[in-house]
Each structure stands twice: as C-alpha cells, then as structure tokens.
C-alpha cells in the first residue's frame, strides 16, 4: 500500500482498509453496494456517492463500525434463536444461514476479523455458550425470554415444595413410629431378664 497524501481519497481509502472495512468479493459495506467484479468495484470507488460516504466514514469510522458490528451480531443471534433454538450447533452453520440473506451485514464491515473472533466475543460477553471442538466452534443460544425465566422459576419453586413435602412426610413417619413404639409398652428386655431369673431358680 503506497503512501498517500493526507486527505486525498486514496489516503482515506487506505485508512478505511486499515480499520478493517475492506472489500470482500467486491462488496462495499459502507455504501452497501455489491459490485460485479474488480473493475466494477474500481468504478464504484471513484463514484461521487462513494467519495461522499468515504468522507463521512472518515469522520465517524468508530460509529460506523460499531453500528455494523451491532447489526451483524443482532442478525446472527436472530438466526441462531429462530432456526436452532437452544440446540448446540456449529457456529459456521449459523453463519452460512446468516449470509444467505443478501442484505446481511458483511463481517468485513464489523470489528471482527474472523468468525472465531466473533464467536469468542459472544461467549465472553455471556450472550451464548461457546466451545471449541475439532470441527470448529460450536454455539448454544441462552434463552432469557421472560416466559422461559418465569417457567424456570416455577419449576424451581415446585421442586422446593416437593422437597418440603417429602421432608414433612418423613417427619410424620418418624413421629408415628415413635408413637407406635410407646403404645406397644415396655420392650422385650424385662421379659428376657425375668426368664433368666426363672432359670436361675430352677437350678
Ligand atoms: Zn462505496
């Protein structure tokens, strides 16, 4: 990459590339324009609309990348939730589904360079459960919808109630056993000693 004079379109273009907003199969994420080939992309980058976007981008590059990143993550998680639920799935499979939508946010417009980086970020920020295998990274959606949380709470409550009931039942049984013992009167022990005495008298 040659050194370009500060402020020129080439300088801005280099700066954009350095920030990770570079072309991937001739797509301009900034203008959200797909070009057919290298020549088409070249023509696009020289167009007035692209140059205008470039100047805007140079002023707000952080905001652009944040916005693209936010939308990318949102779209990816939406696919994961809708199509796979809480089933553990290969992260790349979800990605393939995501990029199937022709209006998807291209990863090269986000802060993530690779899918692995993105998946690790999801795990680190607690948005999903992720784990690495020989077949790549796997991802599991964490269901935090109010309905699910409520259902889980109810389940936990019921479990606790069941446990209390069981404890009470055991307590009752123990008490009952003690009562029965009392009702039965003195245990066999005195009878046994009496028998011994009888034996002694005999001899
Ligand atoms: Zn453009």
Automatic annotation (TrEMBL):
Q: Which InterPro entries does the record cross-reference, listed alphabetically?
A: C2H2-Znf_KIN17, DNA/RNA-bd_Kin17_WH-like_dom, KIN17-like, KIN17_WH-like_sf, Znf_C2H2_sf
Which residue stretches belong to region Disordered? 179-203
The residue ranges of the DNA/RNA-binding protein Kin17 WH-like domain are 52-178
- Among its keywords, does the record have ATP-binding? no
- On whether Zinc-finger is a keyword of this UniProt record, the answer is yes
One GO CC term on file: nucleus
Query: Can you name this protein?
Result: DNA/RNA-binding protein
Q: What is the native source organism of this protein?
A: Anoplophora glabripennis
Organism phylogeny: Eukaryota, Metazoa, Ecdysozoa, Arthropoda, Hexapoda
